[in-house]
Amino acid sequence: MGFLEDETGIESSLPRELYVLVAGSTTYRRTSHSADVVYGGNTYTAAAVHRSNAAIAGGDQVEMVVELPFSDSFVQDNAFGFPPQTMTLTIYRLQVTSGVAIILWQSVITSIAMEGRIAKVRSPSLLDDPVTTQIPSVHCQRMCNHVLYDSMCTKVRADFDLATTVSAQSGNTLTVASVSGAVDQYYKSGDILIGNERRLIVDQTGAVLTLLAPFTGVANGTACTIYAGCDHTVETCRDKFSNVIHYGGFPFLHWKNPYLLRYAWDGQ
User: Fold this and answer.
1) Exposure string for 64-82, b = 16+ CB within 10 A, e = fewer
2) How far is the C-alpha of 187 from the C-alpha of 185, rounded, in Å?
3) Going by fewer Cβ within 10 Å, which terminus of the chain is more open, N or C?
4) Which pLDDT value is given to residue 217?
């Protein structure tokens, strides 16, 4: 017997839906069945999980919405604070009789939204996600348009990193063992890497870093790497990175709007 025979059979059809949610380096396996399911050497934990059909969310975009309870560890780890940069969802339909499973859905996770005690995990189709991605635009402004360390900036991230360890963490505040004598705010607007997860550094005073969102489960002594930040001004580009030749802004742009000045003159 194969999957199709089981799926269409009256007596042989024993379907189970299996959910694999991957967030960074952590994998969460769930099933909507009333009891745990073992498949492929992995255990899928029974949970109050529910999914939509692959439906049109808005316009022509197709997406899958998976609902999980607030108490689920996937929700607790990733719905609050700063989630990993990459999260994926794979849904299998398993026929127990033949032991064969097919993939019903596989794509990235773009958002986790809370509605009361339910978390809605949204996953657009692989074809729709790149099409709906906003393309960065260049603005006529004094500040640099480039993203630090991108191909337009040309600076190499590894040239401005420092390997150190975590000394203490309390909420969004994390203390590292050393900043190697860097002045205050040298690492502001940079980031810190622990394992596969990054956090934005919004303030730095000595070895004390204030993060946009805290890490979870980080012990003292954990290895980390911190990277210098940029405030996108021409002065920082010149003095900190010696990179004015690649500056992506217009530093001599006049502060006053000439059109507004003209209207003011016409009104006098």
Assistant:
1) bbbebeeebebbebbbeeb
2) 5
3) C
4) 79
